[in-house]
Give the backbone structure.
Amino acid sequence: ERTITRQVRGVSLFERRIGEGPEVIVLHGGPGAHHDYLLPGMDALATHRTLVYYDQRGGGRSAVARDVAVGWREQVADLEALRDVWGLEQLHLLGYSWGGLLAMLYAVTHPTRVASLALVSPAPAAKQERAVYEAALAARNATPELLAQRKALQESGLRAHDIPAYNQRLFELAVAGYFHDPSRVGELTPFRLTGRTQQEVWNSLGEDFDLRPALRELDVKAIVVHGDDDPIPLATAEATAAALRAPCVVLHDCGHVPYVEAAADLRAALDPFLPRA
């Protein structure tokens, strides 16, 4: 494992590498999160290849001042600048959640610079599909069980005498709606979202973005992997796969976090697709 801080376009970006062999660039979700909540699960793919993670500007260990722009164009331009620093003609991109959308945005902006696209639980490629996902997540977060567990936590007094335990439980209850089996939330490495970054990225995309027409123009090797119980509707992932003329591998009894809930199946889908030494 190697870490380095890269200086690109006036910002400092934290980077972590693991494995040996051809590089696969891993794009984390959020927007505004950081790479390490993909660990340890995603590291299973670092056999016969190098996984290159980095914290995107405005999140994790790539924090920026409040007046620094962090919209989607900046995120795409950072990735292009990193490609240049890495000395790679083309990138093999592995994008998770929002990172899948970032991979698509990069591909339609720099179509000649993408060797392959692996999209895992990708965010919808069209704005109008977000409303369905947001409604699904809201419903899953408002089940009687979850509401009761949140109430129990607030009444437990845990916050007064064990802040770390309280924060861990608060995190688990916040992300439970993303899981097919909410009892497994403790296996997800906790993360924080930088709210300004998240908001600025979504705002920068506008009210009517739809990448599918541009995706249909691409000639790139691609694969989409999606859980059948992801609050991001499977139909949106299938539509993205169809636009890319790519297979859509469906992971059964799996929510939005396949590297926790369906690790072996995720690896079986991606390992033959990704470049290897």
About this structure: The longest strand covers residues 11-19.
